[in-house]
């Protein structure tokens, strides 16, 4: 699994070799950028195709983006509302747990830095 938060200055380029078996996406949340000749303005999402080199160039205002890539799990997917599970039965169970107030067993601990 790869998860990068990338900040680029005006017209700065970034390259990263990616293994072919990885699938991924990027999301530009500040500025704009160009990937493989395609302009990606702010608040745009792009799915990466196959290839072994990821290259992005920031626009005139620079860019801030996330790049996420990983090996696909190849598992079945069932989605309903905010729930994503592997089977319809798991969806029903998640909805029941949500209604009963038992979906989240323990809240995460937050640490101040």
Summarize this structure briefly.
The protein has 113 residues and is mainly β. The chain has one helix at residues 88-100, and strands spanning 2-8, 13-17, 23-35, 38-40, 44-47, 53-70, 78-80, 83-85. Strands 1, 2, 3, 4, 5 and 6 form a six-stranded antiparallel sheet that branches.
Overall description:
There is one protein chain. With 113 residues, the protein is mainly beta. The protein has two domains: 69 residues, Jelly Rolls (Sandwich); 30 residues. Helices cover 12% and strands 50% of the residues. The chain starts with a strand and ends in a 13-residue tail after the last helix.
Tally of structural domains? 2
Name the CATH architecture of the largest domain. Sandwich
Total strand segments: 8
Helix proportion of residues, in percent?
10-25%
Radius of gyration: 19 Å
Q: If you average the pLDDT, what whole number results?
A: 92
Query: In whole angstroms, how far apart are the ends?
Result: 25 Å
Low-confidence stretches: none
Q: Report the structural category.
A: mainly beta
Main sheet summary: 6 strands, antiparallel
CATH class type of the largest domain: Mainly Beta
Element order, helices and strands?
A: EEEEEEEEH
In percent, how much strand structure appears in the residues? Answer: over 45%
Count of helical regions: 1
CATH superfamily of the largest domain: Jelly Rolls
Shape: elongated
In CATH terms, what is the fold-level topology of the largest domain? Jelly Rolls
Say what oligomer this is: single chain
